[in-house]
C-alpha cells in the first residue's frame, strides 16, 4: 500500500529528511534541486519508521478536533496542568474584548465579540497569563533543584523556536 506524503522543498535543507506530525502527517523535506523521482524509494526505505511513528501519533490526533475557522472555541483544554475550561461569550457595548475567569473553570469573554481578531487576542492574553501563572513557578523550582537560577521567562506565541537557555 502506498504511503501518503507531502513534499516540501527547502532552500536550507542539505539532505532529504522525513518529518511526521499529528497535524500534517508525513512530510518529505528535500533540498532545492533534489530529484523528486527518488522520493518514493526514500519513503519505502523508511516504511517501518513511518508505521511506528504513525501508531504513536494516532493517540495524539484524538486531541486535534478540527475547529471551523472564525468560530471561537467553547472549551479550552490545558492538558499540561489538568484543566478544562468552558468558554462563554457575551456581546457588550465595550469596544475591547476581555477574558475573565469565573468559578468552576468558566471563562467569560465579553466586549465586541463580533470582531474575531479581538476575541483571539483576548484568548491569547488569557493563555499567556495562565502560562506565566503555572510555568514560571515550575521553572523556578526546577532550576533550584538543578542548581541554577532562572533570571527571566518570556511567553510568546511561538511558531518555531519554543524555548532556549
Topology, pairings included?
Blueprint: E1 6-10, E2 17-21, E3 25-31, H1 39-45, H2 47-61, E4 75-78, E5 83-91, E6 97-102, E7 106-111, H3 116-146
Parallel strand pairs: 1-3, 5-7
Antiparallel strand pairs: 2-3, 4-5, 6-7
Structural class of the secondary elements?
alpha/beta
Helix content: 25-40%
Which of globular, elongated, flat, extended, rod-shaped describes the shape? extended
Please report the number of helical segments: 3
Largest sheet: number of strands, sense, barrel closure: 4 strands, mixed
Count of separate structural domains:
2
The largest beta-sheet arranges its strands as: 4-5-7-6
Strand and helix order: EEEHHEEEEH
Tell me the span between the first and last alpha carbons.
44 Å
Runs in which pLDDT lies below 50 for 5 or more consecutive residues are none
The average pLDDT score comes to 88
Q: How many beta-strand runs?
A: 7
Please indicate the percent range of residues in DSSP E strands (runs of 2 or more).
25-35%
Can you give a write-up of this model?
With 165 residues, the protein is of the alpha/beta class. It has two domains: 6-61, no CATH class; 75-146, no CATH class. It is built from three helices and seven strands. It has helices spanning 39-45, 47-61, 116-146, and strands at 6-10, 17-21, 25-31, 75-78, 83-91, 97-102, 106-111. The strands form two sheets. Strands 4-5-7-6 form a four-stranded mixed beta sheet. A three-stranded mixed beta sheet has the order 1-3-2, covered by helices on one side. The radius of gyration is 21 Å and the shape is extended. It starts with 5 loop residues before the first strand and ends in a 19-residue tail after the last helix.
Amino acid at each position: 500500500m502506498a504511503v501518503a506524503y507531502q513534499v516540501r522543498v527547502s532552500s536550507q535543507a542539505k539532505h532529504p529528511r522525513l518529518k511526521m506530525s499529528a497535524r500534517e502527517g508525513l512530510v518529505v523535506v528535500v533540498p532545492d534541486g533534489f530529484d523528486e523521482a527518488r522520493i518514493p524509494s526514500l519513503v519505502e526505505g523508511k516504511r517501518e519508521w513511518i508505521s511506528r511513528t504513525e501508531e504513536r501519533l494516532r493517540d495524539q490526533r484524538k486531541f486535534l478536533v478540527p475547529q471551523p475557522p472564525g468560530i471561537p472555541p467553547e472549551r479550552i483544554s490545558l492538558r499540561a496542568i489538568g484543566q478544562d475550561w468552558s468558554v462563554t461569550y457575551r456581546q457588550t457595548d465595550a469596544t475591547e474584548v476581555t477574558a475573565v475567569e469565573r468559578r468552576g473553570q468558566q471563562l467569560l469573554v465579553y466586549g465586541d465579540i463580533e470582531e474575531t481578531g479581538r476575541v483571539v487576542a483576548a484568548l491569547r492574553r488569557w493563555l499567556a497569563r495562565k502560562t506565566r501563572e503555572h510555568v514560571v513557578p515550575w521553572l523556578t523550582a526546577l532550576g533550584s533543584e538543578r542548581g541554577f537560577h532562572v533570571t527571566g521567562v518570556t511567553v510568546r506565541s511561538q511558531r518555531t523556536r519554543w524555548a532556549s537557555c
